[in-house]
Amino acid sequence: MDEPLRLYRRPGGARGALVLVADGRAHDLGAVDACGRPARAAGLAGAPPEGPEAPEADAAAPVIAAAPVIAAAPVTAAAPGLAAAPGIADWIAAVTPGALRAAARDGRFPEARAIDPGEPLLPPVLPREVGKVLALGKNFRAHAEEFGEDVPTDPMYFAKLPETIVGHGATVRVPAWYDARFDHEAELAVWIGAPGADIDAADAMRHVAGYTVANDLTARTLQGEDRGRKHPWLRAKNFPGSCPLGPCLVLTEANGEAPDPAPWRLTATVNGETRQDATLAQLVVDVPRALAWLSRHLPLQRGDVVLMGTPAGVGPLANGDEVVCAIDGIGALATTIAR
């Protein structure tokens, strides 16, 4: 069986530059344009995706210090039923991963410098390319139990703002006014490639373009206060830089249907110490049922991201801590905390 295609985004230019890893080799796809097409592979995609071209903007900075830094990579707020700014999800949908693999094998792309696990990367999907980030809560039974709670009868979800997205190797600075508990939460992130509403669970995996790793950084004390007041968790889940994604996208190939992530192992370490360790088979609501449930209530758009929940073992982070969230089918996402 072929190794999965992995798509990385290195810093450079307004939207970074893509590196495709296929069959063990790194291929330079070039800088990404305003429609999400990399320079050396745009010709594979035929016509540009429909919709207005987004204005150029600097890619998200790898160090997140305060809201003004986030503003350097503005999010395009999608109106109901509309997708975000054109991005690589549109380009991938037009090209197809199979064509990318074939082009790589045919020598269409120059060789790229191999990805160093320690090099900082941009998030594989930029904030402006994401319409919404939806996250499932209490989707591992042991995680609900560690807070003395039950698994919800129906799937529970909340929103993270796309502007909180940062990449592998980012330093996330906790706002100076907040000195209480700030936690890591390792998660699988599902990248939507085909829009849909009221999706049947049996067809849901055909809407998945790929996967990446997420760290749902959480202001735990604020979350507890808001839970006690029966308020939403918006402020606790949306500090600047609180949604690291990376290091890459693992793309869907076989028969247009995403692989089942159930066998994959999900871990989180802090300064080398393991805190979270589970398999994705332990999800209470798996990916197909999650997408079916979410799409009953609001349409899923190309480029949306769905976080699938975190296992037991979440814990507080101190200044200088390095958190590494990893999924063995994808890779490792490193984040440093400054506070």
Can you offer a commentary on this structure?
Strand 14 and strand 15 form a beta hairpin. It is built from six helices and 18 strands. The protein has a single domain, classed as Fumarylacetoacetate hydrolase, domain 2 (Alpha-Beta Complex), CATH 3.90.850.10. With 339 residues, the chain is α+β, with helices and mostly antiparallel strands.
Keywords:
339 residues; alpha+beta; Fumarylacetoacetate hydrolase, domain 2; ten-stranded mixed beta sheet; six-stranded mixed beta sheet; 6 helices; 14% helix; globular
Oligomer kind: single chain
Assign the CATH class: Alpha Beta
Low-pLDDT segments, ≥5 res: 46-82
CATH architecture name: Alpha-Beta Complex
CATH names the topology as: Fumarylacetoacetate hydrolase, domain 2
Tally of helical segments: 6
Please compute the radius of gyration using only Cα atoms: 19 Å
| DSSP strand count | 18
Order of helices and strands: EEEEHHHEHEEEEEEEHEEEHEEE
Give the overall average pLDDT: 86
As for the number of domains, it is 1
Major sheet, described briefly?
A: 10 strands, mixed
Report a brief summary of the structure.
The protein is of the alpha+beta class. Helix content is 14%, strand content 28%. The protein has 6 helices and 18 strands.
Please give the structural blueprint:
Layout (H helix, E strand, L loop, with lengths): L5 E5 L6 E6 L2 E7 L31 E2 L2 H4 L17 H8 L1 H9 L27 E5 L3 H6 L9 E5 L4 E2 L3 E4 L8 E2 L2 E7 L15 E8 L2 E2 H9 L14 E9 L13 E6 L2 E7 L7 H11 L7 E3 L14 E6 L3 E8 L1
Parallel strand pairs: 4-8, 5-16, 7-13, 8-18
Antiparallel strand pairs: 1-2, 1-13, 2-3, 5-6, 9-12, 10-11, 10-16, 11-13, 14-15, 14-17, 17-18
